[in-house]
Structures are given as structure tokens and as C-alpha cells.
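Re: that backbone. C-alpha cells:
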């Protein structure tokens, strides 16, 4: 009986000594799993980003070229002119035009 008692404490001590290593192995497994999940989420993010870019470029109207940009710039410039706002008329040369009409005329003049 005394032999049985001597063997058990030694085995328990060896088991206790291995417990930190077992915990370390478990943590390493968790790290590997998290790294794989991270890679998967990065691939998914990149795929979603590419899909979004495709959808945005597909939805863009074809008239977003130079003419459209010039119209937008002319409209922004005309907004800065004192007394010339959307719906208001000016006693000057643009009195009978709305801002959109005036900006189109400016674009046509610049385009010629």
C-alpha cells in the first residue's frame, strides 16, 4: 500500500507540470483559428470592396464626362455670383435664364 501512495503523488506532480504546456498548446490552437478567421474576413472584405466598386461604376450615367463636369463647375461658379441664385433673376445678361440654362450656355461657350 505504501507503494501505491508513492506513485500517485509523483504522477499528479507530472500532470501538474504539464498543465501550463497543455494550456499553451490550447492557446496556440486558438491563435491559429483566429488567424484563419482573420484571413477569411480579409478576403471577404476585399471581395465586397470589389463588388461595391463594380456596382458604383455600373450605376454611373454615361454622361459623366467632360461636358457634365464643366456644367457642374459652371453651376458652382454661378452660385458664387452675388444676386444670382437658383430661382432668382438678375437684371444683368442672365435675367431670362435659370441657373441650369446659364450654366449650359457657359459650357457651350467654353466648349467651342
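Recovered sequence:
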Amino acid at each position: 500500500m505504501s507503494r501505491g501512495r508513492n506513485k500517485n503523488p509523483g504522477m499528479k506532480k507530472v500532470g501538474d507540470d504539464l498543465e501550463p504546456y497543455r494550456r499553451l498548446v490550447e492557446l496556440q490552437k486558438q491563435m491559429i483559428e483566429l488567424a484563419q478567421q482573420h484571413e477569411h474576413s480579409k478576403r471577404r472584405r476585399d471581395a465586397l470592396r470589389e463588388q461595391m466598386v463594380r456596382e458604383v461604376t455600373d450605376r454611373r450615367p454615361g454622361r459623366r464626362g467632360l461636358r457634365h463636369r464643366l456644367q457642374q463647375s459652371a453651376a458652382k461658379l454661378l452660385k458664387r455670383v452675388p444676386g444670382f441664385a437658383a430661382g432668382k433673376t438678375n437684371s444683368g445678361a442672365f435675367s431670362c435664364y435659370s441657373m441650369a440654362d446659364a450654366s449650359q450656355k457657359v459650357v457651350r461657350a467654353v466648349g467651342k
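The chain has three helices and no strands. The radius of gyration is 37 Å.
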